[in-house]
Amino acid sequence: MKNLLGKRQVMMAVLVTALGLAVYLNYFFTAGPPDAEPAGNDTVPQQTTASTTRNNLGDSQFVNNTTIAITQQTTAAVTYFSQARINRSTARQEALDILKDTLNNVKSTDAMKTQAAAATIEITKAIERENNIENLLKAKGFQDSVVYIEGKNCHVVVLADGLKPQETIQITEIITAQSQIKAGDIVIIPVNN
After folding, report:
1. CA-CA 20 to 30 A from 100: which of 17, 69, 111, 132?
2. Which of 1, 3, 2, 13 is nearest to 112 (CA)?
3. pLDDT tens for residues 58-100?
């Protein structure tokens, strides 16, 4: 019977590790900047004279499609960060569901329930720290960011065309203050606007 209980604990540890690895791989493969779709036709629309059309206050007039391209890039970045938060939330919810099932399973041993409870607490703390860091980064002037805390490592994706050294230090200080993660275990990835 003791071997069976040991096997269950090992299996639980393997499943939690596999889930953590799946979350990290999901982040790793989706961390690159999203590909912007072509802006369409690059020709300049022909302008009409005032005698052929009525000019109304608020009517837009395109000189070229630079504004469209910038808007599409910004939309793509916003979509990336929104999707990243959804992916992170979904992965965390799946992990919490597995842990909840373990806690509610009558066949689970006390050791398994203790491990599941500890893992649940860690995930909850990570969620709280990630939200705090993202809010503080926004307060410091960064347009958007997504933070991933996995154990003693932290990955931060920041919406920026590039980071100055003082901005990198500022991000690192916020993360270390909120999570006690060492500066060497923090990875900061800027995503172009």
Report:
1. 132
2. 13
3. 544 444 444 444 445 556 666 788 898 999 999 999 999 999 9
CB 80 within 8 A of CB 158: no
145-150 and 153-159 as β-strands: parallel, antiparallel, unpaired? antiparallel
pLDDT at position 169: 94
Tokens of 128: 């709280």
Residue 40 burial (CB count, 10 A) = 10
DSSP codes of every residue in the chain = -HHHHHHHHHHHHHHHHHHHHHHHHHHHHH-SPPPPPP----SPPPP--TTTS---TT----S-SHHHHHHHHHHHHHHHHHHHHHHHHHHHHHHHHHHHHHHH-TT--HHHHHHHHHHHHHHHHHHHHHHHHHHHHHHTT-S-EEEEEETTEEEEEEE-S---HHHHHHHHHHHHHHH---GGGEEEEEE--
Q: How far apart are CA 133 and CA 180, in angstroms?
A: 12
